[in-house]
Design brief:
single chain; 268 residues; alpha+beta; Double-stranded beta-helix; 7-stranded mixed sheet; 3-stranded antiparallel sheet; 25% helix
Length: 268
């Protein structure tokens, strides 16, 4: 029998009693929990890559960049060609902010965990917006923000080489509303490491506003820290959850396998 329990009062659900990942009742409960609680944890499934992809496809179409449905998350260059880029994931971010349509959700399975550190922290920008004072909502509504890959990489490499800058700038930037008015009526904040500047605002004022919003959104009351156990499955709503990896030794064997569920709602 499927059972659910809250991870924190504000967000997250732990699901237990899952026997059949193809059961429509299980999928329905997962999708409902994901929509309203943002983060979903299932322990003890022991999924291999094939089973992870199959489960992901029950939740929606799975993206396959470079023809691969499973992406290996590791700081070991021998395991992941993106090891250097992944250093940016230690900063709060939302995936796909430079795309027209963001991924709907992300699934991680823990293949190896770090002995010390290496958790993943989530923060709900739905809850952050809902709890803003009314005068701040009025201040932020109508503002637009430009997201760039360069902004996130400068947090890792504050003094980039000309070659690094040239590589970062080959990737497109994207402008969206700072407050995303969702088609279901909810609103969320489009912020994080890729948020470069607010359109039409002086650089210092823009940076101050974005930093202020990030600090507000990542308060403990809006957040959940997941401490990984081997074989954990965690799924989150990429469109409304900031996330970041917590520090761990790059030489650790921490390895996650990621699948990404395609979105169907463009940034406003």
């Amino acid at each position: 029998m499927i059972q659910t329990s809250a991870l924190t009062p504000a967000m997250g659900v732990k699901v237990s009693g899952v026997d059949d990942l193809r059961d429509p009742a299980v999928i329905g409960r997962c999708l409902e929990a994901l929509k309203w609680r943002g983060v979903l944890l299932i322990r003890g499934l022991h999924l291999d890559d094939e089973a992870q992809v199959a489960f992901s496809k029950q939740l929606g179409p799975v993206l396959a960049p470079a023809g691969k449905e499973v992406f290996v998350v590791s700081l070991d260059p021998a395991k992941s060609r993106s090891a250097e880029y992944l250093k940016g994931t230690f900063h709060w971010h939302i995936d796909d902010t430079t795309n027209d349509v963001p991924a709907r959700a992300t699934m991680l399975t823990a293949r190896h965990v770090a002995m010390v550190g290496g958790g993943t922290e989530f923060a709900s920008t739905y809850a952050a917006y809902e709890n803003l004072p009314e005068q701040d909502r009025k201040r932020y509504d109508g503002l637009r923000v430009v997201h760039t890959f360069e902004a996130s990489q400068r947090l890792v490499h504050p003094d980039p080489t000309d070659e690094q800058l040239a590589a970062w700038r080959t990737l497109p930037s994207h402008e969206s509303a700072l407050v995303w008015q969702r088609r279901d009526g909810r609103r969320s904040l489009v912020i994080g490491a890729t948020a470069d500047h607010i359109v039409g605002m002086r650089p210092e004022e823009s940076r101050e506003l974005l930093d202020e919003l990030l600090a507000w959104s990542t308060q403990e009351r809006f957040s959940y820290v997941h401490e990984w156990e081997k074989d954990d499955v965690v799924i989150w709503d990429n469109t409304g959850m900031l996330h970041r990896a917590l520090p761990y030794d790059p030489s650790s064997e921490r390895t996650m396998h990621r699948t990404t569920i395609a979105g169907d709602e463009a940034w406003s």
